[in-house]
Automatic annotation (TrEMBL):
GO biological process annotation, one example: 'de novo' IMP biosynthetic process
Catalyzed reaction equations: 5-phospho-beta-D-ribosylamine + L-glutamate + diphosphate = 5-phospho-alpha-D-ribose 1-diphosphate + L-glutamine + H2O
Active site: 1 (nucleophile)
Pathway in which this enzyme or protein is active: Purine metabolism; IMP biosynthesis via de novo pathway; N(1)-(5-phospho-D-ribosyl)glycinamide from 5-phospho-alpha-D-ribose 1-diphosphate: step 1/2
Protein name (record): Amidophosphoribosyltransferase
Function per UniProt: Catalyzes the formation of phosphoribosylamine from phosphoribosylpyrophosphate (PRPP) and glutamine.
InterPro entries: GATase_2_dom, Ntn_hydrolases_N, PRTase-like, PRTase_dom, PurF, PurF_N
Gene Ontology MF annotations: 4 iron, 4 sulfur cluster binding; amidophosphoribosyltransferase activity; magnesium ion binding
This enzyme's EC code(s): 2.4.2.14
Amino acid sequence: CGVFGVIGVTDAANFVALGLHALQHRGQEAGGIVSYSPDIGFNSARRFGYVRDNFTKASLMETLPGSLSIGHVRYSTAGSKGQTQIRDVQPFFGEFSMGGAAIAHNGNITNADSLRKELIERGSIFQSSSDSECIIHLMARSLQQNIPERMKDALRRVEGAFSVVAMTRTKLIGVRDPLGVRPLVLGRIGDGWVLSSETCALDIIGAEFVREVEPGEMLVITEKGGIESFHPFERTRPRFCIFEHVYFSRPDSILGGRSVYETRRQIGVELAKENPVDADLVCPVPDSGTPAAIGFSQESGIPYAMGIIRNQYMGRTFIEPTEQIRNMGVRLKLNVNRALIKGKRVILVDDSVVRGTTSMKIKQMILDAGAAEVHFRIASPPTAWPCFYGVDTPEREKLLASHMSEDEMCAHLGVDSLKFISLDGLYRAAGEAEGRNPDAPQYCDACFSGEYPVAPSDMIAKGFEV
Ligand code: 5GP
Ligand code: SF4
Ligand code: MG
């Protein structure tokens, strides 16, 4: 998901709509915006589909006045699978004795099932199936006298990954979980402040990047421009999601002081060093494989070419939640450039292999177009474990790498070769010159290593073995 918030500018919701549009890659199912103005109070709009199709309408935006606003773009990882229900679309809103608050959450709460059960037993009435709603109910039960303090209480009970953007009548609040798994940055626009999942959404509104919200930090920002920083959690070594660098974030964003594009290009360089192969062309699987393919080509000297053309009017395939749509999606989205491919030995660079659906279809399309050889080079290590921190991966059995070795996957896909970047190579590309520190890994890499930095307690209760 993507979160965005603005305080201290006129018609803040318009800026939020633009910010969410720049974060659309983080979630395409639905979006929501809440604003506050002293005259009318809180207002919200939650809609299915793209930001640009909903939050550009003057008639809708006029209902969201005020200089304080937050928003969310959704992609479902927890709660209702399949068809998103409007009740699961954020921001969520709660009315407390000291006023209302709205919250937007990116990440996944790994103890949400047990929290929900406890809260329902104690009288909470849940409106949605979303894990994020727990935060509102925990806040409602807190005895603290102001909303930021209630939020601290609530979030101290929550396990897992959260980057939260919240608002009261007068405050914009941003929080990251102690490990800082999901991103969150602070920006400045005129006299106002901005919170955003990624820096690319600051750029779109002409806001200036100030700094990242630190792992475990809570920022409380008021209209007058005051900004307070708290550290409500026990300090721990951060473990940012390395897959944000590989796939999830936009390449024009800066994460942890590093250009995402440059990290991806460097992954391609490392891949070419680790797994060279003689071929005629390096082609990305667009768009997610593009920067790594550029790096692979630069390092290997093999020409870069667009062997697969992407229809720009389709979204990200993986993010479509049902299997059927996903299967269609590959063909609807990608087509082979036949004239280029015929008779060529082709290296295909993609960011990841999850179920293998994409790779299988693309291999077939490339062979049908008359390629002489197909070599896959993958910009992440084999995805052998599900993510429980806010990236939607299927259950373990559906992950190709959970039950197949690299060679078996190669045979299964029927390609001439298939190689993945090593975990160390990935860390080097992400700026860790010495590679992964096995005693104290610098990132979360659980989907590759199976080492979960936060025990996924709901899943363990359901029998998941870590
Ligand atoms: P597969 O087709 O192997 O199941 O999925 C891999 C493809 O899904 C890649 O092309 C990748 O770009 C795309 N993808 C989209 N979203 C995600 C995600 O959240 N996780 C992973 N691992 N891949 C994703
Ligand atoms: Fe990111 Fe993978 Fe960790 Fe999930 S398990 S937070 S995708 S590195
Ligand atoms: Mg892809």
